[in-house]
Amino acid sequence: MGYKLRPQDPAAEVRKVARQGIDKAIKALSVAPEERAEGVHQARKRFKELRALLRLVRKPLGDEFQRENHRLRDLGRALAESRDATAMLESWDALAKRFPSLFAEADFKKTRRRLQARAKQAESGATDLDTRIGKVIDQLQNARSCVDNWPLQTKGFDLLAGGVKRTYADGCAELAKARHDLSDEQLHQWRKRVKDHWYQTRLLAPSWPKLMQLRSDSLKALADLLGDDHDLAMMTELMQAQPALFGDDTLRERLGTAVSERRSELQSAALKLGEEIYAEAPNELVARWQRYWNGASG
Length: 298
Prior knowledge:
Elements: H1 10-29, H2 36-56, H3 58-61, H4 63-98, H5 100-103, H6 106-124, H7 129-146, H8 158-180, H9 184-203, H10 209-241, H11 249-277, H12 282-297
Helix pairs in contact: 1-2, 1-7, 2-4, 2-9, 4-6, 4-7, 4-10, 8-9, 8-12, 9-10, 10-11
């Protein structure tokens, strides 16, 4: 997210950032067919950033929040299928870096070729993708036209404080659950709240650039750990649903062992980093960020 919220006029800044995010999503979806897989990936990232922006002003938006949040959620889902197979191949390659000797074996290389063929087929076989992208762009243009009417009358940091507190508190709550429940669903829920807090931290970076950048870097590292774990969970599901894609029983057993070992590493690292990031009480974090904001705007 290359755009930031400057302290001078937060309501105007929120609207500006929303328009920029929507414009970037439209641009990403308007690329040539050979670049479409990456374009869809970039557009879906913009949707997540925009939803984090909405959560920052959730209370002042009122009913508008649910409408726009659901719109962006549904647009992301409409494009998810064309990205999933490519993401699976990327997850395979990341796992191969952790276990290079194992994945250098001929049978593992054959599995990768099958995953690569699957990704290419998914990309070229999405016959209705042009239609879906057209509908998504239409919805984005409609969303852009609604930005000027967002009810953002609250002044100063008060416009943002409630959203900062709720997003951070939700992350604290999901971490607390994850300490006792390392299920795929629970880790995925925590990851979503981590990414929201990360996006909001980046948005508010101008209030105290060095400290906010350090926090942003830590949150990015945490989101990546949880994201890699989630991708491996999806690989396990695919291996169960389409075992032939991954080879014979022996290969799948060896792959499963590698996946389990890597997931254990990722989850341990995520919990450790999460404890550091979410150590502060929500009220304390909001008060600290408000001091940064007031100092920058003064």
